[in-house]
Amino acid sequence: MAVNKRKRHRLRRLLIFILCCTSFFFFLHSDFFSLQRVEVEGNRRVPVEEIYRLTGLEVGTNLWRIDTKGVVARLKNHPLLETVSVKRKWPHTLVIYVHEREPLALLPGPGIFWVLDGGGYIMESISHITSKKLPLISGVQVKGQVGPGTKLEDLRLEVALDVLKALPPQAREEIEEIQASDPENLLLYLPERIKVKFGDATSVEDKWERLQGVLKDTNQLGLLEYIDVSFNGPPVIKLRQKR
Hints:
- This is Cell division protein FtsQ.
- InterPro entries: Cell_div_FtsQ/DivIB_C, FtsQ_DivIB, POTRA, POTRA_FtsQ_type.
- With 243 residues, the protein is of the alpha/beta class.
- It has helices at 2-28, 48-55, 68-75, 155-166, 169-172, 204-217; strands at 37-41, 81-89, 93-100, 105-108, 113-116, 122-126, 136-138, 177-179, 186-190, 194-199, 224-228, 236-239.
- The protein has six helices and twelve strands.
- The strands form three sheets. A six-stranded mixed β-sheet has the order 7-8-9-10-11-12, covered by helices on one side. A three-stranded mixed β-sheet has the order 1-3-2, with helices on one face. A three-stranded antiparallel β-sheet has the order 4-5-6, with no helix packed on it.
């Protein structure tokens, strides 16, 4: 009799456990956790509507069923988005955090100009160089089929971008062009086509500081042929010969 009673108790506990698990399962998959709102943070250039469209999500989808890794993967295909993360905000919201790429330079393409970020990714193309106030990188030839989202792999381009990344935004605005055909001997062109022999991408801030000292001290900017800051020590200045 006591054995049968213990069996009935165990069976009752098992049934209660199964019932609780079933109820919990249906609760998790009920409309209580349906997606009703998508929040986007960190975007400036990419509209919220475009980000939402790229997620492929539909209102009413259960939050538990959303493949957050898949959402991240789809969004990272956008050429203007550098990093993406997704978090569920219970019970009805999905929060998407994005960090957009920042335009750093222009690179000539076939009849267009590519806008690049600091990692060498193509963000977009423009038809006129004057539509973006960014330094032009010359001496680098893009090969193959490329477009927005493509990462360009070229040592010359990498060195030129490293120089720009090491400078503050105000200094970058003073550079019109970086001639990068020789990554060990970069040439910078400033307004009024002032030519600067910059060398490689080492000691960038020191070179720039010494360059600024020359530009402030000389009163013969119009006669400058070049300024050489590619080595340690005082910059070398060469003036054009008067005819």
